[in-house]
Amino acid sequence: MTTSLESYQKSVLNAFLNKDGRLKNIPSQKKKKLVVLEYLVRQLNENQSYTEREINEFIKTYHEDFCTIRREFIVNGYMDRDAGNYIKRDEALWTKWQELQ
Question: Which residues form the DUF2087 domain (predicted)?
Fold first, then answer.
């Protein structure tokens, strides 16, 4: 990642995460939202299946609107859902905020 992309990512995370690491609010701008979603999904374990309840509890440690964030994980290709279980997808399949204008 280039220095300017790293700087952008850091500034977005600083703007939307409080000092405790909780999300102040969900960004409305798509690029910023993807930066935040990517940060959150990176906190999950690779190749681990999560129940819907587990993923909800994980998200609630960052923000109370777990339904919106869980849906965004699926819509933007960060996770797959199968029979109520969630698993992090390969990073190559994620929507890339770095490619947005």
Answer: 22-86
